[in-house]
Amino acid sequence: RELFKVCLEYWNVLVRGMYEDSRTSSFNAPSGLLNLGSNAGANGASMSADLRRQMYSGILTGVRYVMISRMARPEEVLIVENDEGEIVREFIKETDTITLYKAERECLIYLTHLDPKDMENIMVEKLNRQMDGSEWSWSNLNKLCWAIGSISGSMSEDQERRVLVIIIKDLLSLCELKRGKDNKAVVASNIMYVVGQYPRFLKAHWKFLKTVANKLFEFMHELHEGVRDMACDTFVTIAQKCRRHFIAHQPGEASPFVDEIIANAESITSDLMPQQVNRFCEAVGYLISAQLNTQTQAMLISGLMKPYNDEWNSLVQKVGENINVLEDLNVVKQLGNILRVNVSACGAVGKGFISQVGNIYIDMLGLYKAVSEIISSCVARDGAIATKYANVRAMRTIKKEALRLVDTYVKHCDGEVAAVNENMVPPLLEAVLADYAQNVPPARDAEVLKTVNTITGALGGLMTDKIPIVFDSLFESTINMINQDFTDYPEHRLAIYQLLQTINQKCFSALLNLPPQQFRFMVMSIMWGFKHTHRDVADVALTITQDMINNFNMCDRSISDAFFKAYFVELLNEIIVVLADNEHKSSFKPQYMVLARMVRLIDSNQITAPLFDASQPENSGLDNGMYVRQSIANLLATAFANLTQRQIEVFVEGLFNYNDDLEKFRNHVRDFLIQTKEFAGDNADLYLDETEHDIEQKKQKEKEMARAIPGMVKPSEMEEDE
């Protein structure tokens, strides 16, 4: 395999060069027969590229055969042959195989562009040998189909249509011919992979699209679990790319195909596992999202959700009559699964799903409260260990999925924020906030924090009046869970800082009305946040610090003076402490940006109130600039005993000279940190800013180059054109 990789690298360089030569020569080719002067050189280049291609023609045919016969498995394929020769469902992605596939795919695309007819002939010939049995094997069919799928978009539309009609017809025939669970699984997975890679062809040929969809529904009944998984995944892919064709009234059809799918949904999904049903409903949700008529869309949603609503209403009624029904684990799991279906469909449909959310919302919050009370009584009786019980974990799934449904809907509720604020938010906060605050830490769900964060981001200023109760219920209780160390409850840890960041950005005026003790607790918590070595948490806390400083600087001068007098020096000291600590260098960029902003405020005299005690005689004649310089110098002298006073003075002066030029400021701070010798060894994190920028630039350049070559961007990565 290693030797093959080296050869592949060589072939990739060669065919890429030949493709670029042929493209350049075709761009520069003379436009008339008698263009002998200035275009003579271009004409020669064109002939040279053609001659080179002809010279390598036979060799490249051989390379095409080798590439197809050695094709690696794409990540979309879930059916694999294990070491014992059995066909099994794959669970672990092999990064080495995915990397090899990408390199082979690139090579095959260039080879197709260089001679599309030769590529077509080879693929059809190899498929014929599968059909007549002369080369039939799971491995040979897999590799051929993976190669066919990998060159999507690299042929002209006419040629692609001609080739695919042959290939799909033959594969469907092969599926009928082959007997045995494993044979069927292999052929089915290849059909699904190929059709999933060619949405352009499917969109142009409705009958093929409908045949393929019906075949996927057939595969959803296959005995092999991996086939059912792949059928659901492929249906989602096709639904995303071809959604309008399913909701349009096609010629010769009695009604749009989506109506038929919804009418037969129960029989289509009868053999699917709950998570596979979720994928099916997600796919149908994408189809429904293409229906722009609100009334028709609501009818389609109602049709899709009817069996789940009937089951939901029946179970909720039983719970209402006898709360002990929730002691039955199967009932609790059924309720959780129904909520998961709602979440999947809601994410795909978007804001039109409000008709369905409205149907179950009040019952869902009632169920949330009911299971919360049972969980609380279990914990009160048996302690924190109760959170590990199977029935308690299943009940927590109901709570989490209910919150995810609200979270998912609010993310799509453009233009409906007033209705969300009026109808959804008050009963939700009543159900979840007190429950969260009263629960023991292991029974608190991070989804509460995430959902309130999403709502605050969507509603903005409309949430301002609700922030005090949010703070009372969520903030202190969560911070007390995470302030004993830097590792416990990682989900809650990140979520509470993200919530605080959103409140700071969208509802800043609410923070001004917090009681002084609560406000100080918040500032101390932010400082605790940027002391984390976990980069995600530290970066969010540092961003909050910068936003908060900017927000206060724009406030009425009396408010900003009071804040800066109370907290500026303390914040500055803590920023310098983490900046000078080798353990925190991964957050170097937000650290130096906050420091630059704070020094800029002092240097430009935007903070007018004295940050020191002006009544002390020793402070007479002192101003904020001098005081901050002294504070930084004293802190650094204590932290770095190996530095001379002159080195510290030069560094502090540089902070004030460069604070309006972030690049110079960054370089100055970085040079100083390396000079301290505290940062000896690997200092890659101090250059993370430039490294990430270079990586992003490189990715952008590669994307632009890929867009210029037909087929190089995978269909799944193309922007939606539906």
Search tags:
1% strand, globular, 30 helices, two-stranded antiparallel ribbon, 722 residues
Describe this structure in words.
The chain is mainly alpha-helical. The protein has 30 helices and two strands. It has helices at residues 2-28, 40-69, 95-114, 116-131, 138-150, 157-177, 181-196, 199-204, 206-219, 225-247, 257-263, 265-268, 274-289, 294-321, 329-349, 354-382, 390-411, 417-438, 446-459, 467-482, 490-506, 508-512, 516-529, 535-553, 557-579, 588-603, 624-639, 645-658, 662-675, 688-707; strands spanning 79-81, 87-89. A hairpin with a 5-residue loop joins strand 1 and strand 2. It is globular. Mean pLDDT is 89; it is low at 29-38.
Task: Determine the fraction of residues in helical runs and give it as a percent range.
Answer: over 70%
Counted beta strands: 2
Spans of at least 5 consecutive residues whose pLDDT stays below 50 are 29-38
| Largest sheet geometry | 2 strands, antiparallel
Q: Specify the overall morphology.
A: globular
The average pLDDT value, as a whole number, equals 89
Query: What oligomeric state best describes the polypeptide chains here?
Result: single chain
Please give the radius of gyration in angstroms: 32 Å
For the terminal residues, how far apart are their CA atoms? 41 Å
The secondary-structure class comes to mainly alpha
Q: DSSP strand (E) fraction? A: under 5%
Strand adjacency order, main sheet: 1-2
Counting DSSP H or I runs of 4 or more residues, the number of helices is 30
